[in-house]
From TrEMBL:
<keyword id="KW-0813">Transport</keyword>
<dbReference type="InterPro" id="IPR035906">
    <property type="entry name" value="MetI-like_sf"/>
</dbReference>
<feature type="domain" description="ABC transmembrane type-1">
    <location>
        <begin position="73"/>
        <end position="274"/>
    </location>
</feature>
<feature type="transmembrane region" description="Helical">
    <location>
        <begin position="151"/>
        <end position="169"/>
    </location>
</feature>
<keyword id="KW-0812">Transmembrane</keyword>
<feature type="transmembrane region" description="Helical">
    <location>
        <begin position="108"/>
        <end position="131"/>
    </location>
</feature>
<keyword id="KW-1133">Transmembrane helix</keyword>
<dbReference type="InterPro" id="IPR005667">
    <property type="entry name" value="Sulph_transpt2"/>
</dbReference>
<feature type="transmembrane region" description="Helical">
    <location>
        <begin position="209"/>
        <end position="235"/>
    </location>
</feature>
<feature type="transmembrane region" description="Helical">
    <location>
        <begin position="255"/>
        <end position="279"/>
    </location>
</feature>
<keyword id="KW-0764">Sulfate transport</keyword>
<feature type="transmembrane region" description="Helical">
    <location>
        <begin position="24"/>
        <end position="50"/>
    </location>
</feature>
<dbReference type="InterPro" id="IPR011866">
    <property type="entry name" value="CysW_permease"/>
</dbReference>
<keyword id="KW-0472">Membrane</keyword>
<comment type="subunit">
    <text>The complex is composed of two ATP-binding proteins (CysA), two transmembrane proteins (CysT and CysW) and a solute-binding protein (CysP).</text>
</comment>
<dbReference type="InterPro" id="IPR000515">
    <property type="entry name" value="MetI-like"/>
</dbReference>
<protein>
    <submittedName>
        <fullName>Sulfate transport system permease protein</fullName>
    </submittedName>
</protein>
Amino acid sequence: MAREPLPPANAHPPRRIRVGDGPLARFLLIGTVLLVTALVLVAPLLAIFAEAFRHGMGAYAASFAAPDTQYAIGLTLFTALIVVPINVGFGIAAAWCIAKFRFTGRNLLVALVELPFSISPIIAGVAYLFVYGAQGLLGPWLAEHDIKIMFAVPAIILASLFVTAPFVARELIPLMIAQGSEEEEAAVTLGAGGWRILRLVTLPNVRFALLYGAALCNARVMGEFGAVSVVAGNIRGQTNTLPLQIELLYQDNNAVAAFAVATLLTLVALVTLVAKAIIERLDAARVKAQGKPGH
């Protein structure tokens, strides 16, 4: 019986037909994505800047001269300066524990770290009211000792800490798991202590993921509205962060100032995206040079 000739060694396998390979399907898919992106993302961003500069640079600059707006900018920066370092430390500690150790309750710790992602920020704010409010669990004791948390700056910091807690840990955990613990174990055999291993071995390997998580955390702190609106009380010149100030300006029919202030948060978001792209490129270069799993 004659045998069928074998295909040449350099022959390519038959090309598999995939969904969307046709020119019409590709055109429809790409066109739909571009249209949705333009309507949902690009158009609102352009509208913010168009409304902010509608009356010229003079009106735009004057929008930031109001004392309440300046205070809101300062309070937002102050909150970020406190919340971001704390959550960076928490993220490093949580990721270290989850990625490097096996212990009872590890899955529970993972669930607790991700809890703020599954709870509405408004619900988180209400929960803080039930704990620290005047009628809350600790309210009478706090009032007795003249400690004010709700409707003050401490409440804003607490709510921001809760909402942004997972950002750094979520970036570090998968990377630390992928990298394993061989380098840390080798450092232990050479006599290095825990803090030295963390500083000289672990953190350099995850520095780009750490930077990206911190950038996300910072952007969310500055833009958080839901939880902060519940616990801050919207007191002008005292507990208004930038998002709350934008809402008050818009309610006061001062749309130009509202959009002008909104451009600051928009720029924070855009800078975060640019930082993400730069960090990913640097991390890809590191992975290519060292052959290690990256972010």
